[in-house]
Amino acid sequence: PSQFIGGNQPAPTSSGKLRTPSQFSVGLTLVINKPRTGITGIPNTSNTGSTVVAPTTVVYAMQDRIYSGTPSAVSSSQSMSTRRQVDSDQYTSWPLHRRSRSLDYLYNPPPFKGLTNVGFTCFFNSALQGLSRIDQFSNLLEKLFKAGISVIVKCKQKSTKVIIPSGTDHGEVSKRFSETITDIRTAPKGMQMHYFYPEALLAAIRRRYKNSFPEYRQGDAHELMRCVLDAVRMEEIDKIKSGIKKMYAGVESSGDGEEKLLYKSALRAAHKVRTYIDEVVGGEMHSVVICKHCKHEAELIEPFLDISLPVPEETILYYPYYAASRASSRNHTLEQCFNEFTSLDELDGDNKFICTNCSTEDEIQLRKASKQLKLQTLPAVLILHLKRFSIGVTVTKNSTFIKYPLELNVSHYCKQLPTDKKRSTNYSLFALVEHIGSLNFGHYTTFIKTSDAQWYKADDNSVTQVQESVALDKEAYLLFYRRI
């Protein structure tokens, strides 16, 4: 009825008191007319049964919440579901998406939650959304080392079985990260909040990496992602070291020389233990440097949690939302970035190689050399970082468009093909982080592929479904692939 549109029905305040619509600056008063099917607890005020809202019931959409004066309602799938019962003189509030222009969003909640931007935290939100889609990170604390589990620590003297001491807590970042992943992956139902603020995890990261992520300043999504993974990994190693110290209690003060040597060797070897993070996203890179003077080859195996790929330089006029400005750069592919990464790199000038074969005890020889990187061990989840930012006299961004495939085969970039059939070289894209804009006015968003093969865009607290073609046409910064 017209008397309820912008009428005198009071609206709730944050203190729980009522106020009239004239007391807030931006508000919308709605009367909901839906089929009566499935609605209970609301008086029938119409002979036809087409009106589900009693004359005393008005719904307010104000800022980011919905308010209703309905005394009691239980909704069906066609209505605003999971309303809770309240006294007749109370109001019930539900989240209303800030960026949605209709109530359709509330009838079809997304399959996962968004994250609130509290001031330049889009880099934090986007990195977490990408990490949250790694299935192995669900119920993370249950999969990390628990109290009482034995770990084999290898050192030169002998291998040592370390028992994780009972009562040892997981580290702060590990706990908060696991909680955040669980919250994101829990789909909102009906009128439940469909976004939240992971304050505890952000605070834990800032405490661990002091001055790295100050408030109200833009940050780097890749750096944040690495800090989270490194923190969880190191906290697992700290648990192993606690087990070593408990097992060798008293050795430091009263043990003999051999026991002390074994104790210290075990502590050092703990840093080389393959943690759960290593099992999921960790791989190994084979590096070979060939001296051009004596042809000596120096080989090195280096672990990695992600791979940073070079992006071809191109001089283009950059407008983040103007597609024509990027048309000239669409001939570059992710495979070309991999080819550049694994190609021979000439070491000369200030980058000359110290050849141990040419050098003597009295004189170190700097030689021209060539270096090449190849993949040695492939991870279950391959995270690729496109190096768009470079630091010189100033920090610049490379906005060249890189075409990335849904399925990626990395066999051409491996030192040798895996003999284990379970370790395939084929990967499937399931998430990507995009950076648009410039250094001073940039923004991060995440595109996620769910288990039902639908793509969604996570833009801070906004989660909306998009077409696959949209997700594959972005200025990718981080790419997440899982082995298939």
What's the helix and strand layout?
Layout: E1 11-12, E2 18-19, E3 28-30, E4 59-62, E5 65-68, E6 92-95, H1 104-107, E7 114-115, H2 122-132, H3 140-143, E8 150-154, E9 159-163, H4 172-185, E10 195-196, H5 199-208, H6 221-247, H7 251-254, H8 257-269, H9 276-281, E11 283-291, E12 297-304, E13 307-310, H10 334-342, E14 345-347, E15 353-354, E16 366-367, E17 369-377, E18 381-387, E19 389-391, E20 395-397, E21 407-409, E22 426-437, E23 442-449, E24 455-459, E25 462-466, H11 468-471, E26 476-483
Parallel strand pairs: 7-10, 13-18
Antiparallel strand pairs: 1-2, 3-4, 4-5, 5-6, 8-9, 11-12, 11-17, 14-17, 15-16, 18-26, 19-20, 21-22, 22-23, 22-26, 23-24, 24-25
